[in-house]
Amino acid sequence: MSELKLTNVAKAYGEVTVLSNINLDIKTGELIVFVGPSGCGKSTLLRMIAGLEKISGGEFTIDGERMNEVPPAQRGIAMVFQSYALYPHMTVRDNMSFALKIAKKSQAEIDAAVAKAAKILQLEPYLDRLPKALSGGQRQRVAIGRSIVRDPKVYLFDEPLSNLDAALRVATRLEIAQLKESMPNSTMIYVTHDQVEAMTLATRIVVLAGGGISQVGTPLELYERPQNEFVAQFIGSPAMNLMAGEVIETGAQTRVRLENGGEAVSSVPTLAADMGLKVNIGVRPEDLLATSGTPIFKGEVEITEALGEVTLLYFKRAGGDAQVVAKLPGIHTEVRRTTVALGADPAKVHLFANGISLLYR
Amino acid sequence: MSPALQGLITIIIGVGGCVAYFYFSNLFLDKVLYPPSGPNAGRNINRANMIRPWLFLAPAMIALSVYLAYPVVETLRLSLTQRVPGGGYQWVGFDNYIKMSGEPKFWEALRNNMLWLIVVPAMSTAFGLLAAQLSDRIRWGNLAKSLIFMPMAISFVGAAVIWKLVYDTRPADQEQIGIMNAVWLAFEGGPVSVLFLKILPVLGLLGFAAAVGMVAWVFVRPMLRPSGPVGAGTIPLRLLVGAAAVWLIYMSLRSAIGLIGADLPYGVPQTWLTIPFWNSFFLMIVLVWIQTGFAMVILSAALRGVPEDTIEAAIVDGANPFQIFFKIKVPQIMGTIVVVWTTITIVVLKVFDIVFAMSNGQWETQVLANYMYDKLFRANDWGVGSAAAMVIMLLVTPILIWNVYNARKEMR
After folding, report:
1. Domain A4-234 class?
2. Higher pLDDT, residue B334 or A320
3. Which residue in A72, A90, A150 is closest to B315 by CB distance?
4. Residue B227 pLDDT greater than 60, yes or no
5. Residue B231 has pLDDT above 70, yes or no
6. Most buried residue, A198, B159, B262, B367, by most Cβ within 10 Å?
7. Which range (A227-231, A233-237, B163-167, B172-176) has the least confidence?
8. Which residues in chain B are closer than 8 Å to A83, comparing Cβ atoms?
9. Quick one: fold of B95-180+271-412?
10. B318 touches chain A (CB under 8 A)
């Protein structure tokens, strides 16, 4: 059992409010990922949960017990830091057993816990080494091992992979996923700015922006039904295309005339009163397809980026409009400098009014 | 001419001379000797770059060899010779050393130096570390640090004069201007006096003995394990620490017992600097007072360098502030602590001014440097004086080498 509940949690440094109105329920066994742009407060929120930052307002409970004033060590949490934060003067073994020694556990208990964690993380050959004699990935594993030995209710990860190189990052990401798999009852909170990590690891993702929660949902929910333009553009790469327009037909399907001259049909239903509403349509680059019917967008391909399995098409900007990007399967470098008309399946066309998805109003 | 003006002119000539030397010699090299132009421009640049470091190092190297290297050799020579009345020198081998080892004052100086060597670096480093840690995160911490650092700016003789006033004694019927006696006379033999002058000092001594025992245990314990990871090279050091600890514990326990039984002369002003054994400590306090600032500044910088996240990790691991300090912070700055410790040790081995100005080695406060001065310039015995100088150098050298080794390791 380890349920976390944040109620109206806020953080302020003096006059400056960094986070406000954070409401979140985290259930046992979930792996929650906090994502958001730099400076959105995701690390601050994690550090408040850890107890390293004071909670300025609201209440935070673990299993119904108020934690606001409880010191970090008594919250039943363990944290993995971005820079690993290994004690440089201690061997791997001492690093992992430090918390248990502080807690005055018996030597036999400590040895057993360290041996178990070392086995899980394949650190057995390195137990008597100092951190400086380890590679980045090994250090990261020691940092995780230091958490495991304490058998905490909640694991907190603060951008644990950001100091690793690309290949190692993928491997360690998988290891964390396997670790989670082997401990189905432990709750984990994971902070990252990398949406691939978020999408692959999370049970649920919390998107933070502008000092609050933008949306909470499973990775696919966020991808398929983003609540607002921010989430729509933050999740998915390249970002979702947004184009301004006006509703010209309402009902089970909505027709929008776009300012760029195109026309889009969305399967998002609208009311009769929405006629003439100024909206932004959103289409993911991967959902744009060449069409012979009425196009959503028609333009000249300025740059193509062939990535192998897909090709990214960057269209010439018209005036102050955002650049439109399309992602086509296969290699299509030949379309460069040609004019292409693009359409999309109505089910894949999102509608936003004032930044909020019409699905959620 | 007023001395102040003289001083100013000296500074201007000295600093200006240095700047002029570097500027013009560099100019000469670049413009006249090997100008980077003409048919051999490339070759000239390479040659100029080969000469330049020597050009800049030359003044320091010349000064060091004339005023440091040569005197060492000359002192060694002098320590092996004897002046012949009427002029000239005579080779006497190790006679001066033998003569010196026969003098009780030499052994007193050596013993006192050892005591200084243990007490002053330990106390300065400990107080410096304490001050650095305590003043780290408070608003007026920098003010406190400035105050503690200030004695560093005072010359040893100046500090000695200040502390002579602290220890000053006036006849019993006059007002005491020395703070030690003023405080002393406030004690009259009642329970408060017993608490402050017997119980607390005895507890302090016992605590000191316990601390020394713990440190020694840390050093000696790895040797007792059958297969401990102990390098053979460290065994002499460990044994030395163990022996020193046994001696210190014996001394502190003896002092504690002596203090309990002592009949303290309440109400009588004391001439502090004439109380044998303890007066050495009164002198040491002056050097501790000066060196604490140095230790604090260096250790404060080192403490700031301890990665914040290791401290946060320790907080999450449940360590309390003491555990964080002793198990996380101190081990991480151990290298710096050793450098500070050895640097102060070297200062202590050379200590002269304080003893010279305050007690001049009387009442059993002699130290080696003052002993050397006594022999060289008072007794005019150049042979024994030089021998004493060689002994000091012999003691300083290994510590100096260790210090440089550690400082370099820190920089890497």
Report:
1. alpha beta
2. B334
3. A72
4. no
5. no
6. B367
7. B172-176
8. 307, 309
9. MetI-like fold (1.10.3720)
10. yes
CATH number for the domain whose boundaries are A241-360: 2.40.50.140
Which pLDDT score is estimated for A77? Answer: 87
How far is CA B405 from each of CA B136, B305, B411, rounded to the nearest angstrom?
28, 21, 10
Instruction: Using alpha carbons, select from B210, B244, B240 the residue that is nearest to residue B223.
Output: B240
Chain B within 8 Å of A151 (Cβ-Cβ)?
Answer: no
Alpha-carbon Rg of chain A, whole angstroms? 24
Task: Retrieve residue A116's tokens.
Answer: 């178990």
Tokens encoding A293: 């019917």
CA distance A231 to A122: 38
Q: Which positions in chain B touch A146 (Cβ < 8 Å)?
A: 313, 317
pLDDT more than 90, % of chain A: 1
Q: pTM for this one?
A: 0.73
Of A51, A85, A103, the CB nearest to B313: A85
Write the CB contacts of A140 (distance below 8 Å, at least 6 apart in sequence): A80, A84, A160, A161, A163, A164, A172
A130-172 pLDDT tens trace: 888 888 888 888 888 888 888 888 888 888 888 788 888 888 8
Tokens of A197: 């990590």
- Write down the mean pLDDT value for chain B: 82
**Each residue's pLDDT tens digit, A311-358:** 888 888 776 677 888 888 888 888 888 888 888 888 888 989 888 888
Which of chain A's residues have a Cβ under 8 Å away from the Cβ of B314?
87, 98
For A82, the closest chain B residue by CA position comes to B309
The answer to whether residues B270 and B282 touch, using CB atoms and an 8 Å cutoff, is: no
Q: How far A102 CA sits from the closest chain B CA (Å)?
A: 6
Flag if B318 and A79 touch (Cβ within 8 Å): no
Chain B within 8 Å of A218 (Cβ-Cβ)? Answer: no
Q: Which residues contact B377 (CB under 8 A, 6 or more apart)?
A: B385
- For chain B, the structural domain boundaries read 3-67, 95-180+271-412, 188-266
Cβ contacts (< 8 Å) between A81 and chain B: which residues?
309, 312-313
Q: Do A99 and B315 touch (CB under 8 A)?
A: no
| Chain A residues lying within 8 Å of B316, measured CB to CB | 50-52, 72-73, 77-79, 99
**Tokens 């013009």 map to which residue?**
B24
A–B: how many Cβ contacts below 8 A? Answer: 61
At A62-91, the pLDDT tens digits run 888 888 888 888 888 888 888 888 888 888
Does B234 touch chain A if contact means CB atoms closer than 8 Å? Answer: no
Domain with CATH 3.40.50.300 in chain A: 4-234
Q: How many CB atoms lie within 10 A of CB B254?
A: 11
Averaged pLDDT for residues A120-126: 83
